[in-house]
Specification:
42% of the residues lie in helices and 18% in strands. The chain contains eleven helices and ten strands.
């Protein structure tokens, strides 16, 4: 089979990213520009600012990527881009860029589901995982347990009923006076926390058959605890570290326990942990320890592929393109809310 060169574009939130993926050689280059400094002063992502920065950064990043890899724009066989889910304006920047460039070159554009790309990200570094497997997709906007039968065949078996785990980290960090994004900040502070100083609830764990998540009550519990500690003038630096330890522990325990239940229920040999929260050290440690006892393989992407990146978009674009799935009419269409078990329903509309 002739080698295919896919340009990947990712602009779903606050990272502008580009990548080149060769269907025979694998990933040959990728770049990510994070807008953390831009949004940090606001305590979270400002959608309009994110969109404007994508417009400013995206085209120069494509040029630099091509130059750095010794490729030209005429070497491209297709352009894959994140079509959803994500922020509407941010997604539109990537869609307009990808479809406009693809149209001008006379090559296909390939719409990609952002969470499917996260799910497949570990395959950037290894050939395959034993299917079926369980995937935990955990990020700022999503917390999903998915049964993966094959590439493209996904069934949601558990999901958050309110806040996503990453969102809970961000909101918890704000309550503790930490910077955005909250997950890494809470993890760093928790390293100096004392185990057992505080405890927080693990929602929805009493029902052994329930695979859904809930984190809003945990956040509320932290809010009331912080408020009382401030009134009692006990909200010291050590106190904040102890709270961070207990809060992180509660989130991680919930994620590990529900994933463990899913594996017991479905009886699979592999688990993939993907998404930004998948970079959490405590989550990685507890997942590995839990499933080592069950002889179940736990697969994590490298840290650079946990957060939003275009390498996973280009990889997924390569699979989709080889399936003959692409945006035939170069429609500028995005899907801010797009369930992973309805990928084909939306993609078929492009044809």
């Amino acid at each position: 089979m002739t080698s295919l060169l896919i340009l990947g574009i990712e602009t779903s939130c606050d990272e502008t990213a580009t990548a080149l993926y060769d269907s025979e050689k694998g990933l040959i280059g990728h770049k990510v520009f994070s807008q953390i400094d831009l949004h940090n002063q606001y305590g979270g992502v400002v959608p309009e600012l994110a969109s404007r920065d994508h417009i400013k950064k995206l085209l120069p990043m494509v040029d630099h990527l091509l130059n750095d890899t010794g490729k030209t724009i005429n070497d491209l066989d297709a352009i894959a881009y994140t079509a959803g889910p994500g922020l509407s304006g941010a997604l539109l920047v990537g869609s307009v860029m990808a479809n406009g460039l693809a149209f001008s070159l006379g090559i296909p554009s390939v719409p990609i589901h952002h969470m499917e790309a996260h799910l497949l990200a570990p395959l950037l570094e290894q050939d395959s995982a034993k299917m079926p497997f369980i995937a935990l997709l955990v990020s700022g906007g999503h917390t999903l347990l998915i049964r993966v039968e094959s590439k493209g065949d996904y069934k949601i078996i558990g999901q958050t009923l309110d806040d996503a785990a990453g969102e809970a980290f961000d909101k918890g960090a704000k309550l503790l006076g930490l910077a955005y994004p909250g997950g890494p900040e809470i993890s760093r502070l928790a390293e100096s926390g004392i185990e057992g100083a505080f405890t927080f609830p693990r929602p929805l764990l009493k029902d052994k058959k329930n695979l859904d998540f809930s984190f809003s009550g945990l956040k509320t519990s932290l809010m009331y605890r912080v408020k009382q500690l401030k009134l009692d003038e006990l909200f010291t630096d050590q106190c904040r570290a102890d709270l961070a330890f207990a809060y992180e522990e509660a989130i991680v325990d919930s994620l590990v326990e529900k994933t463990h239940r899913a594996v017991n229920k479905i009886n699979v040999d592999s688990v993939i942990i993907a998404g930004g929260v998948g970079a959490n050290k405590k989550l990685r440690s507890k997942m590995s320890k839990t499933f080592r006892k069950k002889n179940v393989e736990v697969i994590f992407p490298s840290l650079e592929f946990c957060t939003d990146n275009a390498a996973m978009i280009a990889l997924t674009g390569s699979y989709r393109f080889q399936q003959g799935i692409h945006n035939e009419n170069y429609q500028i269409t995005v899907h801010p809310r797009w369930s992973i078990d309805k990928i084909y329903e939306e993609i078929n509309a492009y044809g």
